[in-house]
Amino acid sequence: MTDCLDDVLAHIDADLDKSIERLFRLVEIESISTDPDYAGACLQAAEWLADALDAIGFEAGVRRTPGHPMVVGRAPGGAGPHVLFYGHYDVQPVDPVDLWSSPPFQPKLVTAADGSKQIVGRGTADDKGQLMTFIEACRAWKAVTGSLPIPVTVLLEGEEESGGHNLAPFMEANKQELAADFAFICDTGMWDAKTPAVTTMLRGMVGEEITITAASRDLHSGMYGGAARNPIHVLVNVLDGLRDETGRVTLPGFYDGVGELPEAIKAQWESLGFDEAAFLGEVGLSIPAGEAGRSVIEKIWARPTCEVNGIWGGYSGKGFKTVIPSKANAKVSFRLVDQQDPEAIRESFRAYVRAKLPADCTVEFIGHGGSPGVRLPSDSPALVKTRDALTAEWGKPCVTIGAGGSIPVAGDFKKVLGLDALMVGFGLDDDRIHSPNEKYNLSSYHGGIRSWARILAALSEGSVK
Ligand code: BES
Ligand code: MN
Ligand code: MN
């Protein structure tokens, strides 16, 4: 198979414009999974992908779930391990839409100030561009040689961004069909625009939405102010107490199961030469927040945190209204590492809030997410081959990194299917995922497609099972 690789890579280069056009078609579909109004678009994205896989020789279909559908495709290949590839076709909401310099679902190729070519649009980096790198690599193998180097199953999800709970049950119900030797997840980043990476650590996440109710209706703040409880004050007091002044989370039991990083990983991360000032500077900051005595990279990859993601209540419209609201709300999330137990932390949070509540107030909770931190093996034969293939493509040694974000499925592959996952992606820190003007560098897209072409070839050589 490796003797065909040069032809496959040449085909990828020659076909790049069409690969970009295909990505544009997918990005145009407004598959926002958190908003029920876009359920039709989610289905449309799933159908588009099933058709795309079908067109390159996969046996593919859209599979209903109680939520947004899955896409599953299978293609035979040469001797070698059978891999299960995962990506997600759903995207984040686009608001605030007026901060986009072009419409989020009208993708376009632009040349940035630094000279790099970038594909701009919602989902270009998270995760449509990324999942398309793999599909386009398969397309090229198929076009040049008529088949794939190794057997492949593709699993594409539509609820990653909305913390959907349908994936693990779907895996459970379709164990036979999803059986493989290991899984690839393409939803992470490179070290920088020139240095490829595999990610072996991810943080988990627990989300909680809370509503505190005090009086039975909104009140005049002159008539009642001083006598009636203000739920916004109760809420901010609750939220403020979640962390001490050093950024440590105060919930009882929160640090149960959090270990110190092994020295070897610490040393390897130090050798990466992370530029803290540049990382913060790129988003207009200069002073690291959070736990004292830890490096920025340790904070984002290996330490748990608590963040308030949203807070509302009372009057925030134009002008002024003297009101004591009946209700106050917040969305809070915790990033988890190591052995922290998501459900124990959820319970600890709820108990803490209830204990702080005055007797004449009530609280309601809505739980979101709930995935543990993930640590993957970093020395399997498949990983070594993958790293070598990435090094060959990018001309710089592939590094092993962590990521602060969460990909709930990473833990499920092991738990439900018994598969180790390998996380390989081509995103960059400045891709603005989840933000206005999300982009994916053309070098990520092109290099990503070429990388997968090489990885598939490398895995077909020798044994990695
Ligand atoms: N692709 C991201 C996670 C990610 C971001 C990994 C950056 C590596 C680097 C994923 O789509 C995501 O946004 N996950 C959510 C999960 C949540 C909604 C359950 C997250 O991390 O907030
Ligand atoms: Mn993602
Ligand atoms: Mn995301």
Automatic annotation (TrEMBL):
Domain Peptidase M20 dimerisation: 202-360
Signal peptide: none
Cited InterPro entries: Cyt/Met_Dipeptidase, Peptidase_M20, Peptidase_M20_dimer
Keyword Metal-binding among UniProt keywords: yes
Protein's GO biological process: proteolysis
Superkingdom per UniProt: Bacteria
Sequence intervals crossing the membrane: none
Pfam families to which the protein is assigned, alphabetical: M20_dimer, Peptidase_M20
Keywords, alphabetical: Hydrolase, Metal-binding, Protease
Keyword Metal-binding among UniProt keywords: yes
One Gene Ontology MF term: metal ion binding
PANTHER family: BETA-ALA-HIS DIPEPTIDASE, SUCCINYL-DIAMINOPIMELATE DESUCCINYLASE
Protein name: Acetylornithine deacetylase/Succinyl-diaminopimelate desuccinylase
Organism: Kaistia soli DSM 19436
